[in-house]
Write a structure and sequence with these properties.
By secondary structure, the protein is of the alpha+beta class. It has 9 helices and 23 strands. The strands form 7 sheets. Strands 1, 4, 5, 6, 8, 12, 13, 15 and 17 form a 9-stranded mixed beta sheet that branches. A 4-stranded mixed beta sheet has the order 18-19-20-22, covered by helices on one side. A two-stranded antiparallel ribbon has the order 2-7. Strand 10 and strand 11 (175-178) form a beta hairpin. Helix 1 runs parallel beside helix 2 (126-147) and helix 3 runs parallel beside helix 4 (279-297).
Length: 470
């Protein structure tokens, strides 16, 4: 695409385009995010895929194809990195020519979206398989549409703070449970990016020269915040984007443009309100949306170039029990859980799948300790995007907020967003200190050893450093 650059301010070097498509699944598909739920019974609000395509422009105004990066914000729990992610990216590359490694698939982590893993309950049913196949074409199409909307933009960044989330690792009767832990660490920071149409605002018609000017048109906004979208609890069987969908509506109405929500390091953060009532995501979304709007309207202009992108794969150390005795005890405990589920009439298929998954993982870890043969690493891919003096860095995990905050603090960029649930799913990555404490994130949903968090942090900072130096 070629644009008229004659009226652009000096230094305008970034092009941006957006598009959105509805990806709401059919009623009757299994939902994912909580084990043992029955299929969906309705749709409360639509799920969407929102694409932001970014590229540097050359002197003629054309997009430099070798700089294109597609950021796609998805109202989904996560995407399996070994099946769905490569299928979608291959379709994107066929449709748009954008290399698959320059596409970021960022899930909001809503727990009221469709099953995406063929190995989970309902994931192999025809309704789910058809949805997965259609999703690749929908995402490729929305990126293609965004590429046709490219226009020169300027960039402004800002930050705010709101306590929509709360640390969920509550100590109760000597055990860590999923509850509320007000003294626990919380990342309440709201990071925002605003992309405005370049060329400067026009004088309002009829006003004296230099008196009143229109605000520039906002093309797109990004809101980065860390909190699980689980505000409606496990009892809800309606499809919903949860509070991020409400937040987007607030920002788009008050600021303009197309809003992308990018989920942060939310592994140990739940909403401060969790009740199966639709007023709850409305309240949370309005609170986050209001603070994001304030930060966006007061955002400070920054250089939007250079645009730089880097990606790196890493093998994270697979989880093993802390000792052989601990591993044997854990296997016995899980086998008892499995027997209890099988004794029910009928057994809960979702809970049985979950226990079988954890049991298999624990047995493999125990075998590694007993045999001395190390487990293969857990594959993960990381990416970082730089726009001038700002950056975002992605990972495929449910990262504890302490690690996300450390990455932001150690970043060479003053304004850095940490984005989880991107380009795959490796499960929870807790802090090293959380492992001896136990709890759901460690005992039930973790696939990696305690040093994984430090490796993820180091990899993220190295990627950011390479963009600063490059």
């Amino acid at each position: 695409m070629v644009v008229d650059t004659s009226a652009l301010p000096d230094g305008t070097a970034l092009l941006a385009g957006t598009a959105r498509v509805v990806i709401t699944p059919p009623v009757g598909i299994h939902l994912t995010g909580f084990a043992g739920r029955a299929p969906s019974t309705g749709v409360h609000d639509d799920l969407t895929a929102t694409a932001l395509l970014l590229a540097e422009r050359d002197p003629s105004g054309a997009a430099r194809d070798d700089t294109r990066v597609a950021v796609v914000a998805l109202d989904l729990l996560y995407m399996p990195g070994d099946t769905l992610v490569p299928a979608i990216k291959a379709q994107v590359e066929r449709a748009t020519g954008i290399p698959s490694d320059r596409v970021l698939l960022c899930c909001s982590h809503t727990h009221y979206g469709p099953v995406l893993n063929g190995r989970q309950e309902g994931g192999e049913e025809p309704i789910a398989v058809a949805y997965h196949q259609a999703l690749a074409h929908q995402i490729a199409g929305v990126i293609l549409a965004a590429s046709q909307n490219l226009r020169p933009v300027t960039l402004a960044v800002g930050r705010g703070s709101v306590k929509v989330g709360i640390n969920r690792r509550e100590l109760r009767d000597g055990r860590i449970v999923l509850g509320q832990n007000p003294p626990g660490t919380l990342d309440s920071e709201v990071l925002v990016w605003r992309f405005d149409a370049a060329g400067g605002p026009d004088v309002t018609p009829g006003a004296p020269a230099g008196w009143v000017r229109r605000s520039p048109e906002t093309v797109a906004t990004i809101v980065n915040y860390a909190c699980h979208p689980v505000s409606l609890t496990s009892s809800t069987r309606h499809v919903s984007a949860d509070y991020p969908g409400v937040m987007r509506g607030v920002v788009e109405k008050l600021v303009g443009g197309t809003c992308l929500f990018l989920q942060g390091a939310a592994g140990n953060i739940n909403p401060s309100l969790m009740i199966a009532e639709w007023d709850v995501p409305r309240r949370l979304g309005h609170a986050l949306g209001a603070e994001a709007t304030r930060a966006l309207l007061l955002a400070e202009p920054v250089a939007a170039a250079p645009l730089r992108f880097a990606r790196q794969a890493a093998g994270l150390p697979a989880l093993t029990p802390p000792s052989i005795d601990a591993g044997r005890a854990r296997v016995a405990e899980l086998e008892q859980d499995r027997s209890r589920i099988l004794s029910q009439n009928p057994p809960n298929a979702g809970r049985l799948w979950w226990v079988d998954t954890v049991l298999e993982r624990t047995r493999k870890g125990l075998d590694a300790l007993e045999s001395g043969r190390p487990l293969p690493p857990v594959d993960a891919t990381f990416a970082a995007l730089r726009l001038g003096d700002t950056a975002l860095v992605t990972n495929p995990s449910e990262l504890f907020c302490e690690i996300g905050m450390a990455i932001k603090q150690g970043s060479p960029f003053a304004h850095t967003a940490v984005v989880g649930y991107t380009d795959g799913a490796v499960g929870y990555i807790p802090t090293r200190a959380a492992y001896p404490e136990g709890g759901y994130e460690v005992e039930r949903a973790c696939r990696v050893n305690p040093e994984a968090g430090e490796l993820l942090q180091e990899t993220s900072l190295c990627l950011l450093g390479s963009l600063r130096d490059g």
